[in-house]
Amino acid sequence: MTKSADAFEKSLSAHAAIVEARLATLLDASIRPAELARPAQLIEAMHYGALNGGKRLRPYLVMQATQLFAGNEEAALQVGCALECLHSYSLVHDDLPAMDDDDLRRGQPTVHKKYDDATAILAGDGLLTYAFDIIASPETPLPDAAKVALVLELSRAAGIGGMAGGQMLDLAAEKQQPDERGIVLLQAMKTGALLRFACEAGAIIAGRPAEDRDRLRRFGEIIGRAFQVADDLLDITSDAATLGKATGKDAAKGKATLVGLKGTDWARSELDRLVSEANALLAPYGAEAEPLKEAAHFIAYRKK
Amino acid sequence: MTKSADAFEKSLSAHAAIVEARLATLLDASIRPAELARPAQLIEAMHYGALNGGKRLRPYLVMQATQLFAGNEEAALQVGCALECLHSYSLVHDDLPAMDDDDLRRGQPTVHKKYDDATAILAGDGLLTYAFDIIASPETPLPDAAKVALVLELSRAAGIGGMAGGQMLDLAAEKQQPDERGIVLLQAMKTGALLRFACEAGAIIAGRPAEDRDRLRRFGEIIGRAFQVADDLLDITSDAATLGKATGKDAAKGKATLVGLKGTDWARSELDRLVSEANALLAPYGAEAEPLKEAAHFIAYRKK
């Protein structure tokens, strides 16, 4: 591991710890007014689903994209936590027996295994709903215009034209394989949309004009594609011990991936191409953009 | 049926038709940009789950509460549709086998029977997410401050301290019966919170000060309680043919209700008391409040 990569992973971990602490505080405060009856098991399941380790890559991107424009750090942390609630909801629902039917996530029982299906459905619903509560909250120090833009972009990134729609297409893809263009669109929706939002959110939080929002949005789209190519490559080339989860899952399910269609050599050169493209987009920002470039590098070349 | 009650039901139906038409338009436009892959089955399931008849009582309350303060009618219709998406999501998820396990809703197969569990989970997720998209949308003509207030109140009404938390407590109540206070809190969360939001939303849309927001909020809470008492009473006293759904369900499930605990005489006098209290709250608004008073009367004394 290069020195720079090592420093990046330390920075990522340090930010993850800050995000986890804030997420725990936010989830504890999620019942207002306090005299309401507490659905204790639901709150516990939401904690369990949201606070299970994880790299916290999406909040990291929100925070670094905000810092690029010297935006409000506290707002970036809050919006990062909102995004992580939303990401966590998607994992909880995707793991359900009716969906991907996974018993383990990061080596621990998934929410529906630890509790039951009803609790997992409601915990996901609660996390999704809470994401919008956090953004709109008076405790998130942002002008109303920025909050409205964040709610709009997040709901679109998460909704039918984004993550939820992508998951539906992904379930359908197990029965009828999409072509190359279909795979690219499906992945842009299922995993790309939230990464795109994470980057664009920084420009929104910092109140930047449309040009910067657009640039960060495109940067997010490109690292979203890199994320998916890297994921597919790891599924083929890594082993379960390194990856911390089963490998060869795509092939076993007969799921078409770009890497499966075009090969691992293509994948490695595609990652190089995407990283260059991502870096070029950030060129106008000079050295300030270094942390985001390192994030792009990490996403493309991570070993797990 | 009195003349006035007949006129009220005509007004409710007329508004419901307007809401259904707008909901259909909004759901058709829910994929942006249009060149994205369309998860056709998901969009179809969302239509199916949201456009299945229904009284559209919540949007009606939003529209009438807005009109009380001469607020923007177009905004009220949009917010009413957002609220109906959210209400529909809760029905789709509550009907799932892991939750209340219902095969029929209004005489039609529920979403998971018509499609499958995965599609129903995602259709619910999509409807919930889309509610926030509609509120934040540039097509909803409201100042940003009003949109932020609506997102905050709706996410709290729908979340762990509201509907989702109430559903969790309700599932737990089948195993361990709550006491009277527990039942009141559970119902205020599960069904009351969205009705409260519907009424308060009118004051927010019209940009009214805290005093009016508070008054409408309390009005919403009271008609929420009346709604639940009337529901429990109908479950005991009505027959399936009139109600359009099975009766005696609460008793069959061993579910504790206030009416079960305190009797039908108590329920009838409680409804009178709640209607008086609701009317008294609206007294300062004079004749302008007549439609909301009629709504309270309808909610308390409806036959189905």
UniProtKB/TrEMBL annotation, chains A, B:
Can you tell which superkingdom this protein's organism belongs to? Answer: Bacteria
Which keywords does this Swiss-Prot/TrEMBL entry list?
Isoprene biosynthesis, Magnesium, Metal-binding, Transferase
Q: Which PROSITE patterns match?
A: POLYPRENYL_SYNTHASE_1, POLYPRENYL_SYNTHASE_2
Q: Which InterPro entries match?
A: Isoprenoid_synthase_dom_sf, Polyprenyl_synt, Polyprenyl_synt_CS, Prenyl_diphosphate_synthase
Which co-factors does it depend on? Mg(2+)
The record's Gene Ontology biological-process terms are:
terpenoid biosynthetic process
Q: Which GO terms describe its cellular component?
A: cytoplasm
* GO MF annotation, one: metal ion binding
Family affiliation: Belongs to the FPP/GGPP synthase family.
User: What NCBIfam families would the database entry show?
Assistant: FPPsyn (NF045485)
What is the protein named? Probable farnesyl diphosphate synthase
Q: Which organism is it from?
A: Rhizobium rosettiformans
